[in-house]
TrEMBL record:
It holds the Pfam family DGF-1_N. Residues 11-110 form the Dispersed gene family protein 1 N-terminal domain. This is Dispersed gene family protein 1 (DGF-1), putative.
Amino acid sequence: MFYYSLTTAVTIDGSSVVTLTGCRMGSTGLLRPLLSQAEAGYRFVAGCLTVAGRVLTTTAELERNGIAKVTTVAACGECTKDGDCFAPLTTAVIDCKCQCAAGGHGDVCVPAPVPAGPPPPPPPPTPPPPPVGECISDMVYPEVVQAVGGGLSWLCYRNVTFSGGGMRLTVLTGAMTGDVATVTFDGCTWRDGAVLLLLGNTYAAVGSLNIVVTGNTFHDALLSPEGVFPP
């Protein structure tokens, strides 16, 4: 089903092509024109569109349903350079496959490489470190790769669930500060590939380090102390 919800219509230049084919469009077609302005030389290929259960086959039928300024009416089941490919960089259409000229990319011969898929979503936000004397508590932690502890003297997690193969929490104990630094994991659950890495450093700035891991449960997860720790 095709839904057109733009608040403004589309403006294209003379080198552009718009294709609208093979869609079911409800019972009313387009409530406003798709193209507002088009420079000389543009192409708008439309056809094989179903409105109120009926396939539109002519320019007049398309215009009555809000699809105006069409330069080429496409027939159902027909594959053409204009309707299915980026025509300027297509040499031919064979078995409904666009054959690209030099500089054409992807299935429809567009002028730039086509990404393999949508970009990955941004990583979920992570909680800020807790104030001294408080804990990050009673939550499911986002599945992230994160290093914590740098410049801090206090870290505490209580009743937090860490899960997933992408969950890797590295505590940079060697980068913590203060006369006494404290790291606490109390009653936390680690599962499904989650990793807790306690990373020490010969040149740690802290005078003394207290690490408390108590009441934690590990299911298919890893606790790994690495490096040199201060007393």
